[in-house]
Amino acid sequence: MKIEEKIKKMGIEIPEAPKPVASYVPFRRAGNLIYISGQDCRVNGKLKYEGKVGKDVTEQEAYEAARITAINLLAILKSAIGDLDKVVKIVNLHGYVNSADGFVKQPMVINGASDFLLEVFSEKGKHSRCALSANELPFNTPVEIEMIVEVED
To answer: pLDDT grade, residue 1 (50/70/90)?
Structure first.
C-alpha cells in the first residue's frame, strides 16, 4: 500500500506545508538527506495546544501535540519530495518539550511523533532521536520537532 493511502486509511489528511514564521527555510536537501526545520502542533495555522507540559498541558495532550507535529513534518517532506513513497528511512528526530519545573518525561511526549512515524513507515520509520527539555519554546508551543529523512533520488 502506498504511504499516503495508508495515512488516509488512518483517518489523517496531510495538510499543506506550513509556511515559515521567521527567517529560515522549511527544509534543506543535502544529497539524499532532507533536513526539516523545527515544527509545532499547528492545525489550520493555530496551535492545538499551548503552554508548559506538566503545568498547562498534560503528558497525554503533549503526546498528541507531538503526533500533530509529525504530521506537519510530513507535510513539509511531501512538499520537498512530492511522493512520500520516496522515503528510504526516517533518520533522526530532535524533539524539544516546553517543560514545567520537575517534568522529566520528555521521551514519553516525543513518542507521539516516533510512534506515528513507525505506524506510517514501519521499519523505515525507526530512527535515532533526542528528547530534550526546554524552559520556553516559540509561541508557547508545548513541542517542537526537527526531522532528518533519507530519500531516493
So the answer is: confident
